[in-house]
Amino acid sequence: MSWRNGLAKQLIQLLNYRVMGIDMSDEAAENIIDLSGERERRVHDLNEKRLQGVRAAFVKALPLTVIAAKPKKKSKKKR
C-alpha cells in the first residue's frame, strides 16, 4: 500500500507542475516512474502466473508418459 501512496504523490506533483506551467527540475524528472511500463510488467507477471497454473493443471490431469523404445522384431526365417 505504501508504494501506491508514493506513486500517487509523484503523480500529483507531476500534474501540479504541468498545470502551473513550471518546468520540472532534473531531480524531479529522474524520480518519475514510467507507470505504463510498471503496469505492463505487472500484467505480464499475472498472465505468466495464470499460465503456469493452467500448465500445472494439465500436467496433473494428463501426465505425459515416457514412451519406451519398441524392441526390434525378430526376423522371420525363410523356408
Which characteristics define this entry?
79 residues, mainly alpha, rod-shaped
Layout of helices and strands, plus pairs?
Blueprint: H1 2-20, H2 26-31, H3 35-61
Structure description:
The protein has 79 residues and is mainly α. The protein folds into 2 domains: 1-32, no CATH class; 34-63. It has 3 helices and no strands. The longest helix has 27 residues, at 35-61. The protein is rod-shaped and about 100 Å long. The model has no long low-confidence stretch (mean pLDDT 77).
What is the end-to-end distance? 86 Å
Main beta sheet strand tally, sense and closure: none
Structural domain tally? 2
Tell me, rounded to a whole number, the average pLDDT: 77
Given the C-alpha coordinates, what overall shape results?
rod-shaped
Judged by helices, strands and strand pairing, the structural class is mainly alpha
Task: Give the total of beta strands.
Answer: 0
Query: Fraction of residues in helices?
Result: 55-70%
**How much beta, percentage-wise?**
under 5%
Order of helices and strands: HHH
Structure annotation, total helices: 3
Question: Quick recap of the structure?
Answer:
This protein has 79 residues and is mainly α. The chain is built from 3 helices and no strands.
